[in-house]
Amino acid sequence: MSKHIHFFAFVLGGSLAWTQTASRHLTLDEAIALALKNNSGLKIQQHKVEASGHKADQVRAEFFPQLSNESNLLGTVERQRLQFPAGAFGVYPQLGPLPAQPLTVLQGGYGLFLSTTTLAQPLTQLIKLHHAWGAAQADTRIAEQDLTRARNDVAVGVQRLYCGILIARLQSDSAALRVKAAEEDLGDTQKAVESGSALEVAAMGKQAAKLEDEQAVLATENQISDLAVELNNVLGLPLDTELDLAPPAVDTTFALTVAESTQAAVVESPEVLSAAALVEKAERGLRAARAGYVPDVSAFVQHIYQDGVPLLSNNNGVAGLKMEWKIFDFGKRRDEVAEREAELASARENLKRTKEAVAVDVEKAWRKVKRAEQMMQVADEALKLRREMDRLAAEQLSAGVALSAARTEAKANLAKAEADALAAGLGYRLARAELDQAMGRAAR
Q1: Nearest Cα to 374, choosing from 436, 427, 418, 413?
Q2: Lesser CB count within 10 Å: N end or C end of the chain?
């Protein structure tokens, strides 16, 4: 008996410690909101969306004129010089040739400063830039859909952990009642053995059953602890936070058919939308590659400043057009177009495969919802029967025609039926959440 007392002291002590520790009361909606706010993975994905948006803005900025400056400060080994041969300025009757002998004139110093400021507007390059911007925007949409998918995954994960804790706690209460019933049944059996109306093997069987029930209690307590740590981690709370979880309501109103659910998934699923954006990105890449055959033409105005050549003006201005055309590149542009065509074909096939995979996932999730609905109805019927059996056991105990162990066993069976009913209801809610996830909607 001392071992049993120690066992119940352990369970009761754990319960008292739990009640004495400051706990955090949460509803399921609050838990999901907290996870979406504090989850580090979602924060990382949000930063990726922001980075992708800034990258698209960088490409868009190239549509507009670019102002640049190039300055050079040069040092020369020798000073600049001008050389005039004899008679370079003519031959005159009185003076003769000017100059009479070859003449060298040194000018400037040993340094030269040259600064060129250019305002250039791309023209034909706008074709490629337009498609590059479209590809960058597609990348942003892909990142946004990845964020949506991650948010849905977190919401469903929170529901699994939240409901798992509630189910495990009811199972723990049910197992504790079964231990109590087994304890009373063992006591009655031992009395029967002592009176000679039962064999010793019967008491051994009752003892083994009681130990198995005690093991079930410990297993569920460990499961609750593990789930609580995981949920605290997902919510961004200290891992030792005690959670007081309110049971969520179960909404059984569901009227969508498989075809309607699949159609909604094709329109709303992040996986499909991401694959479609990948197709658009590949199309933009192909068009940009084909535009590589067009010469690059830019209009520009330029200001040139120089200091070091005395014979030249310090300031000068230039305006014009600049063309750069790669005439022959040994098939590089042709291979680039072929590469982009292959990428486009791959992206289109991936979109087709993604739609098929989403349709399969939606159908499986839809059927799971229907099975969960049936299981919930069966669990409710079983709970009604267990309640009636508990009432009858109470009446029999009052009439003295049943043992206390039978009454305790009926309570344990009722607690198990209540746990099963809650598990069925929460299982239905999880199935609905997984269907929403497959359809690309926020889990409810």
Answers
A1: 427
A2: N
